[in-house]
Amino acid sequence: MVDRYVVESLLGEGGMASVYRVRHHTLGTVHALKVLTLRARDVRRRTIQEGRVQASLDHANIVRVHDVIDVKGSVGLLMDFVDGPSLDEWLDAYTPTFDEAMALFRGICAGVSHAHARGLIHRDLKPANVLLAPVDGRLVPKVTDFGLAKAVGGDSAAHKTRTGATMGTPGYMAPEQINDASNVDRRADTWSLGCLMYRLVCGRPPFDDDHIATLFNLVLAGNYPPPREVSPDLPDRVYMALDALMEIEAPHRIADLDRLVAFLDEEEGAELPDEAVPIGELGETREVRTTHSTWVDAGGAAGEVATQIAKARQEALTPLPAVERQNTWSPDAGSNTLAPVATLGGGTGPVPSVPAGRSPPGQASSGALPAVRPPSMVDRLVRLVGLLALALILVVFAAAGGAGLMWLVLPSDDPVVVPDPGVAPAPEAMPVEPEPEPEPVTEPEPVTEPEPVATPEPEPASVPTPPVEPEPVPAPVPAPVAAPEPEPEPEPAPAPAPGGTVTVRGAAVVFVNKATQARHDGPRLPPGNYAIEASFGGGDPVPGAGDLTVIDGRSYTLECIPRARRCVSR
Predict the structure, then answer these.
(1) SS3 534
(2) Given CA atoms 397, 398, 402, 408 in this order, what sign does their dihedral have?
(3) Which secondary-structure segment (H or E) carries 115?
(4) Is 42 a catalytic residue?
(5) Which residue has the higher pLDDT, 428 or 122?
(6) What rounded mean pLDDT belongs to the chain?
(7) Quick one: pLDDT band at residue 553, thresholds 50, 70, 90?
(8) Which of 223, 235, 455, 525 is deepest in the core (most CB within 10 A)?
(9) What is the pLDDT of residue 329?
(10) How many other CB atoms are there within 10 angstroms of residue 102's CB atom?
């Protein structure tokens, strides 16, 4: 168990956390428990922040966090359990109708506007962070994972994002969020909602590429297939809404979701705003109020696909040992799952089922230990009385032992019989076992030596007659040859200068050594730390395009992104 919750199965694992299906031990309610697996301080802080943010939000279109639990030093978020697929999984298996897409989009906007009205920005809206919950025959979209949420106007150092940091998912991240995630407002979320709406009505994401640098360039340039060409049968108000949501410049982008939904629903007098508002100067906003549907009927094909995805996920769940656990759980040192501790005795309570003929993980096929329930107050009183009785018995025995010792020390009036020293008592006869007769030793038979074999004497070898050598003829004396003049030794090739090689793409750059202020054009640079000055439009190089550390013998490729005005080493 974890606190008051029985862990039933592992729902999924990621790079930062594992999610479990848990059930309240007494009430029987089902929840999801997100347990942090990384121990980094920043990750722990953001997980606790996520719990605080979602616990403050109470909306039908937001997955709510009910509690933050300490799991043996790890942070655990107790959340609503959604027995349905993510919007990303659902869209990969099903193409919604226009009405279904718009109903889901309204529900998502309603949940996000609830957070915006309380000064919170999600900063990571995408289909994977929207869950489809089956509720009373409906599929209700619920926004989750507020791990990157930002409180607008907050001055706590614990919630500040480092200036210049990039946070979010590249394909759904607003252009201003790529440059500086700390300097954004709720219009970063409206950009992400525009990308999500594009995915719903066009059947594909607006920005898609395998290389992050290319993906960033597409987002910064607003270069995506026009929705009129991808889906030419959509109403004009949808194209206008997408243009307002996916405006590259944040001051010209729509900020209020209630006005957006009213325009999509064709309410009387609803128009899209056209005024430009600088970042940091937005006023308060209102929540989305609509009389139109914010859910999808689960009785049709949409619900059937969602059920199939949920069923497939249920079959793929990692079962936990079919024994009741103690109240102490901890992350296993060898894995990212929670390790149950089996106990002796019998027990009751809900436990997960294990297929027949299959042993639970981490448990042998035989010798499984039964579980024990926590002792009641009556059990504890009975144990206390037993301990007191045992202590009383020990005191009585100690007193009796002292009296016996005094009896041994004090003299007795009874006569003492002294044995006669002249008569020695006869010792008792000890039976003597007969010694076993030794076995006769058999002498080994003598070994006959073989007779020597006569070796024939070798015959004397015949001495060969040496041949008669002819008299040597004197060789002619060669004519003297003049010695060639020695060739001059080639000069050694100059050793290459120390440093690294830099290949630049996308701009003309100048490298300024931070220590000596020397300027270099490349491609070969001496070792050291350099500030990058870049020219993206053909003018003079401008400082602030980045930094580069050059190590001797290394090669570097510098990717310069014109829209970001930055150069990144790869």
Answers:
(1) strand
(2) positive
(3) helix 98-116
(4) no
(5) 122
(6) 75
(7) confident
(8) 525
(9) 43
(10) 22
